[in-house]
Amino acid sequence: MPNDVGLFARTIDRGLVDVALSGLSRRQKTLPAKLFYDEEGCRLFYRITELPEYYLTRTERALLPQVAPLVLEAAPSGSVLVEYGASNEGKAEFLLTPCTPDRTEAIAAYVPIDVAMPALLQMRERLASSHPRLAVHPIVGDFMHPVKLPASVAAMPRLGFFPGSTIGNLEPTEATQFLALARATLGARSRFLVGADLRKDPSVLLPAYDDAAGVTAAFNRNMLVRLNREAGAEFDLEAFAHRAVWNDQESRIEMHLVSRKDQVTRVAGQQIHFSRGETIHTENSYKHTPERFIAIAADAGWDCRTMWTDPARLFALYLLEPRTAA
Ligand code: AVJ
User: Contact at 8 Å (CB) between 95 and 191?
Assistant: First the structure.
């Protein structure tokens, strides 16, 4: 039955193929970390945030209710909250719903920016009922590109928010570029609250990226599942192992997929050779000291006004303000 062929027809995403092939043709094969977040990847990441070994999310969430009122004190009422990489409103809630009644109107508008359109639409729907007076203007896009705020919020004082240590995925030079772009978007009288993981002993870091239940391994391998489905790739999932390594020199956790054998795979018809033990580098997660983070922000024109951390110094929230020419 010739029609059966149709059952196996796949729509191949050319953009994804190009991104994959360009990374896989380097000497150290790489795939960009943002490819993790298809629907299944978002589900797996959510499960990671609930793992006992993954302290980042729960530590930041415990800090936010304490820090939010202090941040809002510096935000004039009628401010717009601009959140970078906002896949849900869970963390922004602490800024949108302040505990003191007189600060109710501090945030008048919310601009969540994310690559995942479905997540943004769901957020807008939920916020319409939970915060009926809040103006919500989602922007679909990659935050490494300049963002133009909607005209209706252009005149409002701006508070930027970048939680979750997503900034740790960026090389320090990219982090500076991103912070400089955000500085341009948010303007000279803004504030910017950034959540970032801290450098610490590898005995704490490594299990957070190689958990006992194997959820992080599944998250890492899901990148190949996605390429098989969307980029016409033919990865044998069993033939790649998850590996997390601590790179002390660069102060970062690296995630890799290690080829268990000499093998040849194909991506959209193009052959890719792997020797046994060769890796695909899928993610960097930088763990900066406060001094280093503050230096990176300074390069982008931000001064650190306050830094908060938990008693065990696992995670930090930095409140940045634009440096004004002396
Ligand atoms: C969402 C980028 C903060 O680097 O910890 C979790 C992603 N990777 N486990 C991180 C991730 C492996 C996460 N960020």
Answer: no
Q: What pLDDT digit, counting tens, does each position of 71-94 carry?
A: 998 888 899 999 998 878 999 999
Provide the residue type at 6 as one letter: G
Nearest to 163 by CA among 99, 71, 225, 44: 71
pLDDT tens-digit readout, 154-200: 999 999 999 999 999 999 999 999 999 999 999 998 999 999 999 99
Contacts of 197 (CB under 8 A, 6+ apart): 56, 165, 168, 285, 286, 287, 314, 315, 316
From CA 41, how far away is CA 20, in angstroms rounded?
Answer: 17
In angstroms, what is the span from residue 188 Cα to ligand 1's centroid? 31
- For atom 13 of ligand 1, the residue with the nearest CA is 166
The pTM of the full predicted model, rounded to 2 decimals, is: 0.93
Q: Alpha helices, DSSP H only, in the chain?
A: 4-8, 14-24, 39-49, 55-73, 93-96, 117-130, 172-186, 202-208, 215-230, 290-299
Residue 164 CA: nearest ligand 1 atom is: 3
CA 166 to centroid of ligand 1, rounded, Å: 7
Could you give the percent of the chain with pLDDT greater than 70?
Answer: 94
Res 1 pLDDT > 70: no
Q: Cα(233)–Cα(266) distance, rounded to whole angstroms?
A: 6
Q: Check if 169 has its Cβ closer than 6 Å to any atom of ligand 1.
A: yes
| pLDDT for 324 beyond 90 | no
Measured in Å, residue 213 CA sits from the centre of ligand 1 at 16
Residue with the nearest Cα to atom 5 of ligand 1? 285
User: Bigger pLDDT: 101 or 111?
Assistant: 111
C-alpha to C-alpha distance for 225 and 218, rounded to whole angstroms: 10
The rounded distance, in Å, linking the Cα atoms of 317 and 165 is 9
- Spatial strand order of the sheet with 252-259 comes to 29-30, 279-286, 252-259, 240-247
